[in-house]
């Protein structure tokens, strides 16, 4: 109702070009209450670096205010230098009013001339709040400084428009509030925020690039499938004719992939690690699909701070049973004996690198005083979620998988003595297969990857979830088809070591994604400094690991299904 108080929370400040380097607003020498009261935040908001606190701004619904005094401060020389440094680093602030973020710059900086060089730094001491409403709802809010002049912060003395007292700089902070009626309803207010452009609009939808990428991928898949089907058809015809002529000479001469039918299902080394990779990969496939589906259902919007973070943590904990089940089930099928060790390895395969990376990144944030450093209560909450939910679900899933595991379905018997593998040409080596198998899936997502990076490491709000689902499906399809093709070429050379090769071939896509992240950091962003760099490269490594696990899992199962199919289709003794 008109005249009701509207609470304005101050949140954080930070360098404009370093989205993940943020500090509490009250770390700057600004107007603050005698006692700072913080707003209770959700887990996602804390993970997002939010630290909302009540402010001195008095705003009443639909009541305009003109140049009302906020407070008067006398800044010491050290505090003036702190503000100068913040302004020179292009610090922006974020306020929150009715879950609507409000952004603005702390001050103004101007560089002009070469000889003589002019360097001016000014502090905004007056803010104009423009708030749009519809009925009894706040629709949008922003802040403007176009009708005010900055107070110069001169080195070694008080600037024009401020009064120096006792070596300090006396400042008066004021604000105005203007209300405007909006035609948008409360349900559509997210559209207004989406159209606002305090941060640069780099996320223009390049439909032509996306369609071009999709067409190329579909053509690639069609090419691989058609070629493989024609080659296999000829192989089946030739091998089955040889079988009818007699099977005594099957092991003589070059018979391609049929000659290794007694070795192709020989279980690989490091069985426990392989099963752990497959289990965690299945977990992340489930998690990624769940996040995208939730986004398509409209569960994440621009007014729900940290909603995706909270959902990702919840789904990661709940899908731990998937990793335990898939890993322990397959481990039992391939005659693994140490199933307890397998469960422990599965539960720590991603959580251990995550904890190590988080420890380093969080230490850097803590050392710099950033709000991205998690408080102890949040750390204990996350640790409790893993200890009380994630790990027990992994164990339960593993036990169920072990008990429900059947026999490994192999259409061919395996000999006790392994066949000698002939020398392979250079183009069938693991490194070459990893280069081919990693580059092709990466090329399928390279366009969409830019949008994702601009969202995660920038200021954008990602909304193309339908396209993201299509690209995700195409990525998995390309990974599966490339893996099948590379596995066929490997078996044709009488090399039956396909188990780990199938995981590594398209799992190497993660390496290409990390290389792209380095390119993005250097050429597509303005990020700098230890804090932002530690955050970016630490979590980019984890992202690359997640993609490697997901694509390695899809690649392995595609190869296994393909191998079972081709050997089942032959006439065996």
Please tell me about this protein's structure.
The protein has 573 residues and is of the alpha+beta class. It has two domains: 4-195, no CATH class; 207-569, no CATH class. The chain contains 14 helices and 15 strands. Strands 2, 3, 4, 7 and 8 form a five-stranded antiparallel sheet that branches. Strands 6, 11, 12, 14 and 15 form a five-stranded mixed sheet that branches. Residues 157-161 and 245-254 have low confidence and may be disordered. Belongs to the nonaspanin (TM9SF) (TC 9.A.2) family. It is found in: Cytoplasmic vesicle, Autophagosome membrane. Its main location: membrane. One of its GO terms (biological process) is protein localization to membrane.
A few lines on this structure:
This protein has helices at 43-47, 77-88, 189-195, 207-245, 271-296, 307-318, 320-333, 339-368, 376-404, 430-456, 465-492, 498-507, 509-524, 530-568, and strands at 5-6, 8-15, 23-24, 53-54, 59-60, 65-75, 91-97, 100-105, 107-112, 118-123, 126-134, 137-144, 151-152, 163-165, 168-181. It is of the alpha+beta class and 573 residues long.
Contiguous runs where pLDDT drops below 50 for at least 5 residues: 157-161, 245-254
Roughly how many Å is the radius of gyration?
Answer: 30 Å
Question: Between the first and last Cα atoms, what is the distance in angstroms?
Answer: 85 Å
The total strand number stands at: 15
Q: Beta-strand level of the residues, as a percent range?
A: 15-25%
The main pleated sheet reads as: 5 strands, antiparallel
* SS summary, helix count: 14
């Amino acid at each position: 109702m008109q005249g009701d108080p509207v609470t304005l929370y101050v949140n954080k400040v930070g360098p404009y070009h370093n989205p993940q380097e943020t500090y509490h607003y009250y770390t700057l020498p600004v107007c603050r209450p005698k006692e700072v009261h913080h707003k209770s935040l959700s887990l996602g908001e804390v993970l997002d670096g939010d630290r909302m606190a009540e402010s001195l701004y008095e705003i009443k619904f639909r009541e305009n205010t003109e140049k009302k005094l906020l407070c008067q401060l006398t800044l010491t020389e050290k505090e003036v230098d702190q503000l100068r440094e913040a302004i020179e680093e292009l610090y922006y602030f974020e306020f929150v009013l009715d879950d609507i973020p409000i952004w603005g710059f702390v001050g103004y900086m101007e560089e002009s001339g070469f000889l003589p060089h002019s360097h001016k730094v000014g502090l905004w001491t007056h803010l104009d709040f423009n708030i749009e409403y519809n009925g009894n709802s706040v629709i949008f809010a922003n802040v403007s400084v176009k009708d005010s002049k900055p107070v110069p912060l001169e080195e070694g003395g008080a600037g024009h428009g401020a009064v120096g007292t006792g070596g300090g700089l006396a400042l008066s902070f004021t604000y105005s509030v203007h209300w405007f009626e909006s035609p948008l309803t409360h349900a559509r207010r997210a559209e207004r925020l989406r159209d606002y452009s305090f941060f640069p609009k780099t996320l223009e939808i390049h439909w032509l690039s996306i369609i071009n990428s999709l067409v190329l991928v579909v053509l690639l898949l069609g090419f691989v499938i058609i070629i493989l089907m024609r080659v296999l058809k000829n192989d089946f015809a030739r091998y089955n004719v040889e079988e009818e002529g007699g099977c005594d000479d099957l092991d003589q001469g070059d018979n391609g992939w049929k000659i290794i039918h007694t070795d192709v299902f020989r279980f690989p080394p490091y069985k426990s690690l392989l099963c752990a990779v497959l289990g965690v990969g299945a977990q992340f496939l489930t998690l990624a699909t769940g996040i995208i589906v939730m986004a398509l259902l409209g569960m994440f919007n621009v007014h729900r701070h940290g909603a995706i973070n909270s959902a990702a943590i919840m789904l990661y904990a709940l899908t731990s049973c998937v990793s335990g089940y898939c890993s322990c089930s397959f481990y039992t099928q391939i005659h693994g004996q140490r199933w307890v060790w397998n469960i422990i390895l599965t539960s720590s395969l991603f959580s251990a690198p995550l904890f190590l990376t988080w420890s380093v990144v969080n230490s850097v944030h803590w050392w710099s005083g950033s709000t991205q450093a998690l408080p102890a209560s949040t750390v204990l909450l996350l640790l409790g979620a893993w200890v009380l939910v994630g790990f027990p679900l992994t164990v339960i899933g593993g036990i169920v998988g072990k008990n429900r595991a059947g026999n490994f379905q192999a259409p061919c018997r395996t000999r006790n003595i392994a066949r000698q593998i002939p020398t392979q040409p250079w183009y069938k080596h693991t490194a070459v297969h990893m280069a081919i198998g990693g580059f092709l899936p990466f090329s399928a997502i390279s366009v969409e990857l830019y949008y994702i990076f601009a969202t995660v490491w920038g200021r954008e709000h990602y909304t193309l979830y339908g396209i993201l689902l299509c690209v995700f499906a195409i990525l998995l399809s390309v990974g599966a088809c490339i893996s099948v093709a590379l596995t066929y070429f490997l078996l044709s050379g009488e090399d039956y070591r396909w188990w780990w090769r199938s995981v590594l071939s398209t799992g190497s896509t993660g390496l290409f994604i990390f290389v792209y992240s380095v390119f993005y950091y250097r050429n597509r962003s303005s990020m700098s400094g230890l804090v932002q760099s530690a955050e970016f490269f630490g979590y980019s490594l984890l992202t690359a690991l997640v993609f490697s696990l997901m694509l390695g899992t899809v690649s392995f199962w595609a190869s296994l299904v393909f191998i079972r199919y081709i050997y089942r289709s032959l006439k065996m003794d």
